[in-house]
Structures are given as structure tokens and as C-alpha cells.
Amino acid sequence: MRLDNLSVNIPDLLLEALTGIEDGIAIIDEHSNTVFANSAASIMIEDIKEEISKKIREVNHSSEDSLEFHHIRRAGRWLRYYVKRLSVSERVFFLFVVEDISDLKLAEQTISQLAHFDGETGLPNYVLFRDRVNMAIFRSRRNNSSSMVAAFEFVSKGGVSSIEESTIIDMTHSLVRGIRKNDTLCRFSRREFLLLAEDLKDYRNASTILRKALNAFKIWQENCGEFSMELRAGFVLLPRDGVDAEQLVNKAFASIQSSEARK
């Protein structure tokens, strides 16, 4: 589109556009001196001058004329920037574009949270748990170690009455306190939970971890006086009982039924 017929000064129009844009726009010379910067760029680049100089050197010594977007976190904000080499009147300058993408990063983190964690308890969901089991399977082969996949079922003793969500959430907090910090407790369904405990020495080690989790549940019962509920549990070991995540989970839940049948 030609602008020759407009009765305005084109440089003034461009300057006004660059000054008012929300993204940071700056032109920097080869010595990292700022030739031009709109108000947004002046604010956003103040704390990252050393980073800018480093990136300019990278572009200057590269066969490429530009450097793709990168992320920098400063003062709780996420910035994305782009540097492009310019040659004007036999001099080298660099176009610097910076954008505050904090809202975008927050949205990505929220989506990740929803995709991998239970919205009520904050525990990992089954998608994340399965990934961690698969990693445990890989590590067990590499390190010749064992891991436990335990299943828990939270039920009312009568088997009929409903259980309030707030009660389940409260009980969940007690289970978290009863497991090791590096173990993974997952909410599989509303009343069912899974536990992954890695780097175990033997069967007795797994039994000890499971017993501590059940003891934490008993302490919760005593503290809140909720004796109409019970927590059933069963577990399997990998690689002894399998090396497939789905199969291990199914076997862990099946072991609950086997334990109940033997009572």
C-alpha cells in the first residue's frame, strides 16, 4: 500500500505508532547503546541490559541475521524478545522487540495444572501418575531397584451411605502426611487413590510404607471422630509383578479385593 498521497509526515506517523504500541520496540547500536526505545521498551529492558548485550554479541557473531524468541523472568514477569541485525548507511544496528507474556505463561501453567492435577485435592491425576510409573519402570531396569504401586479405596463401613467431598479432601491431607516426600500420591477416582514409592529394598520396605499411610488414616479417624469410614489397601511391586503401568494398577486394585476376601 502506498502512502504518498497522505497529507502527513511519514516519519512522524511511524514514531507515533512505535511510541504507542504496547510491545517494547528499541534500536540498539553495536556497542549496546540505545538509539531509540519506546516507553514500553524503556521499562522492560532496564533490568536486562547485560542479557541484551550478550544476545547482540551472539547475533553479531552468527551467520543468521536474527535471534528467535527467548524467555526471561524478571521481577515476577515473563518477557519474550527478538533481536534482528540491521545494516543502515554501512553501520550495524539491532532491532529489539520485547513482549510481556506473563498472562500467557500463567494461562499455560493453569492448563498444565488442570491437565495433570486433581482440581479438588491438588494431587496428581492418573495421567501424571502413569507417566511417573513409566519413569519408575525405566529407572528400576537401569538401577536394578524395586518400586511399589499401592491402591487405596475409601469406603463407608456400611457400603451404602455417601461420603462428602470435604471429608475425602480432609482424609487426603492425612495420607499426604503419612508418605515420604518423594513418593507420589494420586487421585484415581473420587474414592480411589494410588501411591508410587520408588527405590525400595524389598517386600518388607513396601509393607512399612503402606502401614505408615494406613496409620496416618487411623490418626485422622481418631482426631475427627469419623469411624464410619475405612481405608482399604493393596499393593504390587515392580518389576516383580509386571512392567506395564496399566497392568500394575489393575493388579494393585485386585489385591485389595484379595485381601478383603481373606478376612
* CATH fold assignment of the largest domain: Alpha-Beta Plaits
Strand order of the largest sheet: 2-1-5-4-3
User: N- to C-terminal separation?
Assistant: 84 Å
Low-confidence stretches: none
Largest sheet: 5 strands, antiparallel
Query: Could you spell the SSE succession in H and E letters?
Result: HEEHHEEEHHEHEEHEH
What does this structure look like?
This protein is α+β, with helices and mostly antiparallel strands and 263 residues long. It has two domains: 10-105, Beta-Lactamase (2-Layer Sandwich); 117-262, Alpha-Beta Plaits, CATH 3.30.70.270. It has helices spanning 10-20, 39-44, 49-60, 102-116, 126-143, 165-177, 203-224, 245-262, and strands at 24-29, 34-37, 66-74, 77-88, 91-100, 146-156, 184-187, 192-200, 229-238. Strands 2-1-5-4-3 form a five-stranded antiparallel sheet, with helices on both faces. Helix 6 packs across helix 7. The radius of gyration is 29 Å and the shape is elongated. The chain starts with 9 loop residues before the first helix and ends with a helix.
Structure summary:
The chain has 263 residues and is an alpha+beta fold. The chain has helices spanning 10-20, 39-44, 49-60, 102-116, 126-143, 165-177, 203-224, 245-262; strands at 24-29, 34-37, 66-74, 77-88, 91-100, 146-156, 184-187, 192-200, 229-238.
